[in-house]
């Protein structure tokens, strides 16, 4: 539970940095690139490549979470959900100068939602898994 609170804090930091939320995606972003990168983040997490995920984070986010903490947060979910099957749904949301991709992912034993927030440099500003 402590790990989930940490990840929630990490995500909320990204949202707060973005100010008021709007649904319009800034012209600074390429929708296809965002979707492709978010799918890559999901795959890295599912394949236990936590250091690669950390490498994609902004310097601010790196000060809040490390690869071991990410593993500790994901492992109980992974154990419960089982093997990755597919990404069922993707949604893009604009947050001023940030972009958020919501990925609904199907596993053998259920679904998970990954909410991934990017800055204009395509660095992660938020990551939430539920």
From TrEMBL:
InterPro entries: DUF3887. It comes from the Bacteria. Residues 38-127 form the DUF3887 domain. Keywords: Lipoprotein, Signal. Residues 1-18 form the signal peptide. This is Prokaryotic membrane lipoprotein lipid attachment site profile.
């Amino acid at each position: 539970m402590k790990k989930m609170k940490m990840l929630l804090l990490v995500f909320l930091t990204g949202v707060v940095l973005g100010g008021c939320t709007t649904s319009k995606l800034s012209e600074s972003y390429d929708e296809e690139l965002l979707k492709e990168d978010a799918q890559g983040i999901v795959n890295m997490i599912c394949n236990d490549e936590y250091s690669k995920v950390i490498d994609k984070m902004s310097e601010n986010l790196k000060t809040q979470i490390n690869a071991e903490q990410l593993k500790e947060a994901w492992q109980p979910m992974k154990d419960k959900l089982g093997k990755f099957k597919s990404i069922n749904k993707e949604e893009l949301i604009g947050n001023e100068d940030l972009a958020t991709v919501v990925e609904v992912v199907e596993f053998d034993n259920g679904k998970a939602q990954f909410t991934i927030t990017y800055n204009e440099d395509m660095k992660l500003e938020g990551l939430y898994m539920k």
